[in-house]
Structure formats: structure tokens, C-alpha cells
Amino acid sequence: MVAPLVYAATGEQLSRSQSWGLGLLGMVTLGLSIYLFFVMFVPEKF
User: Fold this and answer.
1) Is the distance from CB of 3 to CB of 20 less than 8 angstroms?
2) pTM beyond 0.70, yes or no
3) What would the pLDDT profile of 13-39 be if each residue is shown by its tens digit?
4) Where are the domains of the chain?
5) Which of 6, 18, 24, 44 would be 14's cystine partner, CB 3.0–4.6 Å?
6) Which positions ≥6 away from 16 have C-beta within 8 Å?
7) Phi and psi based region of residue 10 (left: phi greater than 0; alpha: psi -120 to 50; beta: remaining)
């Protein structure tokens, strides 16, 4: 699911492993951002 999205978003030729790496890096970055915003706004749960 991740690799085809990266292929479609980039005009250059990337290997499949590079596409997976970029996709996973984006998902980790997004998840970490959501987690940190949640921690900032609801700190008493942590």
C-alpha cells in the first residue's frame, strides 16, 4: 500500500526498497507528530 503511493507521488525512478523506506518514514513522522500533539494538550494522562 505504501510503495505505490510513493511511486505515484514522485516523478523520478525509485527502487521498491527506497519507496518503502520513504513511505514508512512518512508514516512514523506523522504518527510521532500526532502523539506529541496529544501529549502537549493532554499531559495529565502521561
Assistant:
1) yes
2) no
3) 777 788 788 888 989 999 999 999 999
4) 2-45
5) 18
6) 3
7) beta
The Cα 3–Cα 5 span in angstroms is 5
Helical H segments across 1-46, by residue range? 2-9, 16-41
HSE on the CB side for 33, CA within 13 Å? 6
More confident: 2 or 25: 25
> How many CA atoms lie within 13 Å of 39's alpha carbon, on the beta-carbon side?
7
Cell 502537549, residue located: 40
At 38, which amino acid appears? F
